[in-house]
Design a protein that fits this description.
Helix content: 25-40%
Radius of gyration: 14 Å
Largest sheet: 4 strands, parallel
Strand content: 15-25%
Structural class: alpha/beta
Shape: globular
Protein name: VWFA domain-containing protein
Number of helices: 3
Order of helices and strands: EHEHEHE
Length: 107
């Protein structure tokens, strides 16, 4: 079993009242250490690289993009899932879900 968690945000009003960044980052690190979880962070019109570092999400799985390019980003996520599923069926678990994207900051 493996889980791919794709977090998509525009950064507007994401202030949790139950969990801190530290608690979330600790949970993500623990889950990724099991090698069953893969976290991806997509930020529309925000600095996703900076935010993802605070959450312990691998930089290879982070993309900043323009909201106007949402359709292209969804195509990339679909391709990432296709490649991930293909590698999984071959017995390999990919950690770099979006490794085929060369420009990670498309803002």
């Amino acid at each position: 079993m493996s889980i791919v968690m794709v977090i998509l945000t525009d950064g507007m009003e994401n202030a949790s009242r139950e969990f801190t960044y530290h608690q979330i980052a600790k949970t993500i690190a623990e889950l990724e250490a099991t090698e069953k979880w893969n976290f991806t962070f997509l930020g529309a019109d925000i600095d996703a690289i900076h935010t993802s570092k605070m959450l312990n999400i691998r930089s290879e799985n982070v993309v900043s993009f323009k909201k106007l390019d949402m359709n292209y980003m969804m195509d990339d996520i679909s391709e990432g899932m296709r490649q991930y599923s293909q590698s999984k069926s071959e017995g390999v678990t990919k950690k770099d879900f979006l490794d085929f994207i060369k420009n990670k900051d498309r803002r």
